[in-house]
Design goal:
There is one protein chain. The protein contains ten helices and eight strands. The chain is of the alpha+beta class. It has two domains: 109 residues, D-Maltodextrin-Binding Protein, domain 2; 140 residues, Periplasmic binding protein-like II (D-Maltodextrin-Binding Protein, domain 2), CATH 3.40.190.10. Helix 5 packs parallel to helix 6.
Length: 260
């Protein structure tokens, strides 16, 4: 287990049979784009969807920023340059007519800090928008949720559809109002599923047995980490932007799991 990009390279080379990554990063690897430019990772296959990394864009409760159409000239922390949330956010705001350069020319700033530092800047009023692609709830957001509270900026449905069409591996979802006390309703969002990938040389029978072990021992994984309660068999194929391993697919068909 390492970074999403490194895991793809390791699985592709056969240094590991299974690895974890984001759905859209796997698509980039398969296509030889983004961080894999010119080097297709053709030996990887989809194994299972685990849980979504939700693109969460927070502003303080009293902020004048109500939607993503209001971020011109804003002070924004989208994460460090290589963070998946930064890359996803930069692509998303283009659908609203913004670029990082344009925001800076309008008097805004882009802060390259991690989650906890971004939360501290938002809490202290030094930035207007904090962005991260992570689980909900997340500790950094909870720090702001406790005091002074925040709102999450929604993604318009039509823009989410366009964004997902351009960025295979993302899904349309909501941040549940139950994730944070600051929220009074679910907030529409886009998300990149955290997925498991597998080397295509793994036999169909072994792939089938691996899928069987993972899902039939789900309760034991919950005992290790309660977050596994959020990982559902019925969602196992969600965000599958690359071919599914035939052994895993055989198991999912037996269980009636279909792509959504």
């Amino acid at each position: 287990p390492g970074g999403g990009v490194g895991n793809i390279r390791d699985v592709d080379k056969g240094n590991a049979e299974i690895g974890w990554t984001f759905g859209h990063t796997a698509v980039a690897g398969m296509n030889g784009s983004g961080p894999f430019k010119g080097k297709k990772q053709s030996n990887i296959m989809f194994f299972a969807n685990l849980y979504p990394g939700l693109l969460q864009m927070a502003v303080k409760k009293d902020s004048k920023i109500k939607t993503l159409r209001d971020i011109g000239g804003a002070r924004i922390s989208p994460g460090k340059l290589t963070f998946a949330g930064n890359i996803a956010f930069e692509k998303l705001i283009k659908h609203y007519g913004f670029t990082y350069d344009g925001i800076k020319k309008a008097g805004g700033t882009i802060h390259r800090v991690g989650f906890s530092d971004g939360a501290a800047l938002l809490k202290d009023g030094h930035i207007d928008v904090m962005v991260a692609m992570t689980t909900a709830p997340n500790a950094a957001y909870l720090a702001v949720d406790f005091q002074p509270g925040f709102r999450l900026l929604p993604v318009d449905g039509d823009i989410a559809d366009k964004y997902i069409a351009e960025n295979p591996g993302f899904i349309k979802t909501n941040v549940s109002k139950n994730a944070y006390t600051s929220l009074t309703e679910d907030v529409s969002a886009v998300a990149a599923p955290n997925i498991m990938i597998i080397n295509k040389s793994v036999s169909e029978d072994l792939g089938y047995q691996l899928a069987k072990v993972v899902w039939e021992h789900h309760a034991e994984l919950v005992q290790i980490n309660k977050f596994w309660n959020n990982v559902k068999l019925e969602d196992a194929l969600e965000g599958a932007g690359i071919p599914v391993h035939p052994g895993a697919m055989r198991f999912y068909k037996e269980k009636g799991v279909m792509k959504k």
